[in-house]
Amino acid sequence: MYYVIQRHHNDHQKHYFAYVVAKYISAKNTQNIIFEITQNGITKRKWSPKKDIILLTADKELFRRTIERLEAIKEHHLKKINAAQEELNQELNHFHDILQKEFEMIRLASQTNVLH
Questions:
Q1: Which residues contact 22 (CB under 8 A, 6 or more apart)?
Q2: What are the extents of the domains in the chain?
Q3: Mean pLDDT, 10 residues at a time, over the chain (116 residues)?
Q4: What pTM was computed for the model?
């Protein structure tokens, strides 16, 4: 078995895929690797750009350690990102409340001026 970690693009929460393949096909003069993946007894081929392959190894322990390291990095930074998102949401709510109060004061002041 071969263990693969592949870069995942365009998702801020998930940066990579990790999976196991029975075999793969690659050549020096190609830009892709073909992986054979068996799911539910059906073998499928998946093409992946070589540049997106972070790790391709038969060493299960190296794969496991690498995933643990990546998950620790991800967890550390996602905690910071989630805290910053919460702070941003609170600030946006505060801004909205202040603006609504200001709108109400302007509306009341303009009604007073219109009536006189």
A1: 1, 2, 36, 37, 38, 43
A2: 2-86
A3: 90 84 92 92 92 96 96 92 95 96 91 66
A4: 0.69
